Amino acid sequence: MENKQIAISQFGDPDVLVTQVSPIPEPLVGEVVVKVHFSGVNPIDVKTRAGLGWAASENKDNLPWVPGYDISGEIISVGSQAERFNIGDKVAGFIGFPLQGGGYSQYLSVSESALSLVPSAITLEAAAALPLAGQTALQALDKAGVKEGMRVLILAGSGGVGHIAIQVAIAAKAEVFTTCSEANLDYMATLGAHAVNYKFSPVSERVEEADVLIDLVGGDAALDALNCLKDGGTVVTVPTLSAELICEKAKLLGFNATGMLVDPNPEQLDALLYMVSVGLVKTEIQHIYPLDQVAEAHKQIETGHTRGKILLDMQC
Ligand SMILES: NC(=O)c1ccc[n+]([C@@H]2O[C@H](COP(=O)([O-])OP(=O)(O)OC[C@H]3O[C@@H](n4cnc5c(N)ncnc54)[C@H](OP(=O)(O)O)[C@@H]3O)[C@@H](O)[C@H]2O)c1
Predict the structure, then answer these.
(1) 103 within ligand 1 shell (Cβ under 6 A)
(2) Do 104 and 138 form a contact (C-beta atoms < 8 A)?
(3) Which of 48, 146, 221, 297 would bridge 141 by S-S if both were Cys, CB 3.0 to 4.6 A apart?
(4) Which domains does the chain have, with CATH numbers?
């Protein structure tokens, strides 16, 4: 048996992604080997492949480098002192973030403490959609102190992070406003959010008196959305590139503002899996690409218009 991995051979276009073959790893102490069924594709993978951002600069002398942070699959071997799981258990995890990566692998040895058990009611597809995006959503809402009765504006509600953030905020009994293009208006309504078509009018003309802005777009869209906040409102801006600018402007206007870097937390993944199992959150998966079509998956993310998540099927 071989272990196919997708690696970034050099920084550049999607065709720098190559397949490499390595042995199936043996578990180290406290580790388990996961046969990865699905690997999530995130915008950070695409940015790193293009040579942008911290993970790229830290790994520039380390190519070929295997990206990927979201995995779901089943345990095929258990190392010494690894006691949480048994062979055959279905698991998911947010692994190797941000510098190690490795998720675009058919087999991976990881610390058992990085993994969550996937309940039988949840598909491995849904489980792979949750780790990075779901934890970003939870941590952004948490930083903003979202609670019952608040008016919460979430920019890009139809994306990987946004569609989960909307559902968690609604479950917390917040009133949620969001932005999307025409194609996603109905989808946003089915999640319970008031949706504004950002191509039709700036959100500042349509939403007012928001307590919280969760910015998943950055740049001019975020600057415009600051006008939707009430006095003393709170901003969490998630895209790292424009975070400094947006926080500076928000603070000048008297708002509380912060950027964030998601922090892997298996207990939060447990909570997300629970929310999916009881129907509070439904993952949206736009497309699952076979691993040899990873370049197409990256091109889709690069459109900036993915609804929900994109996954790689690592076993076909
Ligand atoms: N700091 C961190 O730790 C962290 C963690 C996770 C993600 N991020 C960043 O957060 C951002 C969102 O991540 P993601 O995974 O949700 O991205 P994504 O899934 O690629 O987002 C795609 C969505 O963005 C929407 N969109 C595009 N332009 C828009 C605009 N001007 N206004 C409103 N919606 C717009 C699209 O909706 P339409 O098709 O309807 O236009 C699409 O559904 C990315 O920049 C990502 O790198 C940062």
Answers:
(1) no
(2) no
(3) 146
(4) 3-130+283-313 (3.90.180.10), 133-259 (3.40.50.720)
